[in-house]
Specification:
The chain is mostly beta strands and 121 residues long. Helix content is 6%, strand content 51%. The chain is globular.
């Protein structure tokens, strides 16, 4: 199982008609040959599965990609769950450049992000 570095940038929306490269995430995840997240690979390399959330007017957040039941979350504080940012149906998505993922951010809003790069670590 190979680990990949994935970069997400905010996709077009009502508030951002052109999207925003200044708002997004970079994370490391184990992907199979079809670009799906691999839970077994995550169990073996979970310490390497880190995330950095970034935004234009906020400091970067650093945490981990975690597997919770059938779902995946960005977790910034291992002692609390209210800071987690769930990824919408990430277990079913292909993680490939040009595809889209949705993240429910801290403010409770589900936002769509475009996958702008996927590269082996």
């Amino acid at each position: 199982m190979t680990l990949y570095h994935v970069r997400l940038e905010l996709a077009r929306s009502k508030d951002f008609p052109e999207g925003s490269a200044a708002h997004g995430y970079e994370f490391v995840a184990p992907l199979d040959a079809n670009g799906h997240l691999n839970a077994e690979g995550w169990k073996k390399d979970k310490a390497a599965c880190v995330v950095r959330g970034f935004g234009k007017d906020k400091p970067d957040e650093h945490g981990r990609l975690i597997h919770v039941g059938q779902g995946w979350h960005f977790d910034y504080d291992t002692k609390a769950r209210d800071d987690d940012e769930p990824l919408f149906k990430l277990d079913r998505h292909h993680i490939k450049q040009g595809e889209y993922l949705s993240v429910k951010e801290h403010d409770g809003v589900l936002r769509t992000f475009r996958i702008v790069s996927v590269r082996a670590v």
